[in-house]
Write a structure and sequence with these properties.
- This protein is mostly helical.
- It has two domains: 52-332, ABC transporter involved in vitamin B12 uptake, BtuC, CATH 1.10.3470; 348-385, no CATH class.
- Helices cover 74% and strands 1% of the residues.
- It has 17 helices and two strands.
- The protein has helices spanning 2-13, 34-53, 57-83, 91-107, 120-138, 143-163, 165-168, 186-209, 212-222, 224-229, 234-260, 265-268, 271-284, 291-310, 315-330, 335-361, 370-384; strands at residues 174-175, 262-263.
- Strands 1-2 form a two-stranded antiparallel sheet.
- Helix 3 packs parallel to helix 8 (186-209).
- The longest helix is centred in the N-terminal third of the chain and has 27 residues, at 57-83.
- The model is unreliable at 1-10 and 15-29 (pLDDT under 50).
């Protein structure tokens, strides 16, 4: 028990207890996980080649929105999934990024074209700046109150977008410069910029999850008081993750706004955005790296498809809802954790059968002793490799 506590404290604070070694005695160093590397490379190839293989405008439009929400859901999960604090206010950063790019383009009299995409990181930086005071206020509360605070902040920003008409044009909205591109390749340009935003969001998510900082976030999610007792600066850690997630969401909002060509307060600041990204993360796997990617790719593409096919009589809403309820009923933990758990259980059963086979072949009689089992398990693992 003390050893586990020492190990947890050392991992959270970045120090190692005396006598600790990276690998246990007799344990080989971990090699490169080639299966995961190949999986990620295959996924990257599919994403990059998709608009080339399927160049139809309707398909590339659906793909663009899917990638945008993959980036937004990944960024949302970087904070909410790892810390356990459910945010229903990230639409503040999405809308702020959209309005930042639109207003800068209009007030600077920029011509449409690829040059406007250089404003996307600026939109992300503005979203980060907004996240600092927002987070300082909201993160003083705990989980349930935090949800209420984020909802309140969302409505404040939506009302500001409506009422600051001299700045945001109010309900009339803001029209962005039109890109001087032909229909051929129009969606593809936006798609690859959205992929770049996704890469940034995913890179931040992986970096956070694999770092000591990510371990501190997970400790806060499991038991915030215990994490504070182990020396974690909980408010600082939560605020940092909150600000980092705002950056990618703000950039996603900026690219989304430029693609649409005009924005309005009710669409840039909408509660449906927060509900959508939350549902996507819960569907794919809350707190996992790949879960938000899968959830957003499935739900957003299906929503766009159902909207195109059945928007006339709103049947798409029924189909979308039935699909979501069916998946949640069958896979309550999310797709990725459920499939991963089933695969691990299968591996454990397979290894157990191999251990029993090796133990019997070793000539053990009766219930095998611990040394025999250890040798059998080691031999079985060697055969697995």
């Amino acid at each position: 028990m003390n050893g586990g506590l020492l190990g947890g404290s050392a991992a959270l604070t970045g120090t190692a207890p005396s006598g600790a070694t990276p690998e246990g005695p007799g344990q080989p160093a971990r090699g490169v996980p080639w299966a995961k590397v190949c999986t990620w490379l295959a996924m990257a190839l599919v994403v990059l080649a998709f608009p080339v293989v399927f160049p139809t405008p309707a398909v590339t439009s659906i793909a663009f929105f899917s990638v945008i929400f993959m980036a937004a859901a990944t960024a949302w999960n970087t904070f909410s999934g790892y810390s356990g604090y459910i945010s229903i206010g990230h639409a503040v950063f999405f809308g702020s990024g959209a309005y930042t790019l639109a207003l800068l383009a209009v007030h600077l009299n920029l011509a449409g074209g690829m040059g406007i995409f250089w404003l996307v990181p600026v939109a992300g930086a503005v979203a980060m700046a907004i996240a600092v005071p927002f987070g300082l206020v909201a993160l003083r509360t705990r989980r349930h109150t935090f949800v209420v605070m984020t909802i309140a902040a969302f409505f404040v920003f939506q009302l500001l977008a409506y009422n600051l008409s001299s700045f945001t044009q109010g309900s009339a909205g803001v029209s962005l410069p039109t890109p001087p591109w032909t229909a051929t390749g129009f969606n593809q340009r936006f798609y690859y910029v959205a992929v770049a935003v996704l890469v940034v969001a995913l890179g931040l998510s992986v970096a956070v999850r694999r770092s000591r900082f990510g371990l501190q976030l997970l400790a806060i999610r499991d038991d915030e008081d215990r994490a504070a007792g182990l020396g974690v600066k909980t408010t600082r850690v939560k605020l940092t993750a909150f600000v980092l997630s705002a950056f990618s969401v703000g950039m996603a909002g900026a690219v989304w706004a430029y693609f649409l060509g005009e924005i309005h307060p009710q669409f840039a600041f909408t509660a449906l955005f927060d509900l959508s990204v939350a549902i996507m993360c819960f569907l794919g796997g809350f707190g996992t790296i790949t879960g938000p990617l899968l959830g957003a790719a499935l739900l957003e593409s299906l929503q766009q498809y159902f909207t195109i096919q059945y928007s006339a009589d709103n049947l798409y809403l029924i189909a979308y809802g039935v699909l979501f309820l069916a998946v949640i009923a069958l896979l309550p933990r999310g797709v990725i954790p459920t499939v991963s758990g089933a695969y691990r259980d299968w591996q454990d059963r397979r290894l157990q059968r191999r251990v029993e086979t090796v133990a019997r072949s070793a000539g053990a009689t009766g219930p095998p002793g611990v040394p025999v089992l250890e040798r059998a398990a080691s031999s079985a693992r060697a055969q697995e490799r």
